């Protein structure tokens, strides 16, 4: 893959922020977080994971606006600018395939992007347990919000998002790879090797980097897991592997 997009599909709370940050440690792989939330994040004056306001971030500022420096480009224009950057193999978009984002891979395909769809799955029990903590943005802002039928909604959303991702696998089998989050954190070297084969890049050094207990690389990501936006952190083993 060259100057393309690796789209992480599946449901939230499945470890996409961890996976995208891991892949972003490899030369030429640029992790940008949940890209299709960019307009809302800018309107709310959110921060890039580097700590700067998105509009002030050196990484984003050159891609966001037309030559007048005021008019914001379309999402497709922004992502094309990033993907065509020097030395870029692909950008990693972890927007996933929930109700409002399930068609985003089709948008890339329609606009003739070279795209790989990486379906990240996680057990429903683990997703529900993670969901008990609250939504990432609410936790980051110190907001306590309880929605009716929260766990039922989680289960239905999990089923929908994973079914949507698998549908891409049926129609675009050469562009699709499915990995399990639990396998990723137990055997990162093996899973990253499979992803590297999928992308036609060598991720062996990245797997060894995390096996050695090194911390996540810094990046320029939008939204996603609040703990990774605060910097640092290492890959933690699952209960199943302990």
Mind explaining what this structure looks like?
The structure is a single chain. This protein is of the alpha/beta class and 242 residues long. Helix content is 42%, strand content 10%. It is built from twelve helices and five strands. A five-stranded parallel β-sheet has the order 2-3-1-4-5, sandwiched between helices. Helix 6 crosses helix 8 (150-171) and helix 10 packs antiparallel against helix 11. The chain starts with a strand and ends in a 13-residue tail after the last helix. 37% of the residues are buried. The mean pLDDT is 87.
Strand portion: 5-15%
Secondary-structure content class: alpha/beta
**Molecular shape:** globular
Distance between the termini: 36 Å
Strand order of the largest sheet: 2-3-1-4-5
Total strands: the figure is: 5
| Contiguous uncertain segments of 5+ residues | none
Helix content: 40-55%
Rounded to the nearest angstrom, the radius of gyration is 17 Å
Largest sheet: 5 strands, parallel
């Amino acid at each position: 893959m060259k100057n393309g997009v690796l789209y992480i599909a599946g449901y939230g709370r499945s470890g996409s922020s961890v996976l995208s940050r891991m892949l972003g440690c490899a030369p030429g792989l640029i992790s940008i977080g949940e890209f299709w939330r960019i307009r809302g994040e800018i309107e709310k004056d959110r921060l890039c994971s580097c700590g700067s306001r998105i509009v002030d971030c050196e990484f984003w500022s050159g891609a966001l606006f037309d030559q007048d420096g005021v008019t914001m480009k379309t999402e497709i224009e922004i992502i094309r600018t990033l993907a065509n950057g020097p030395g870029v193999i692909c950008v990693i978009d972890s927007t996933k395939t929930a109700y409002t984002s399930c068609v985003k891979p089709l948008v890339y395909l329609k606009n003739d992007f070279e795209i790989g769809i990486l379906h990240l799955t996680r057990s429903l029990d683990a997703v529900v347990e993670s969901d008990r903590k609250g939504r990432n943005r609410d936790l980051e802002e110190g907001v306590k919000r309880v929605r009716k039928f929260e766990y039922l909604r989680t289960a239905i959303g999990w089923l929908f998002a994973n079914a949507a991702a698998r549908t891409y696998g049926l129609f675009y089998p050469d562009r699709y790879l499915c990995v399990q989050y639990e396998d990723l954190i137990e055997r990162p070297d093996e899973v990253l090797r499979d992803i590297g084969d999928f992308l036609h890049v060598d991720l062996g050094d990245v797997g060894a980097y995390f096996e050695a207990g090194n911390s996540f690389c810094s990046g320029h990501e939008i939204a996603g897991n609040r703990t990774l936006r605060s910097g640092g952190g290492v890959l933690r083993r699952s209960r199943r592997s302990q």
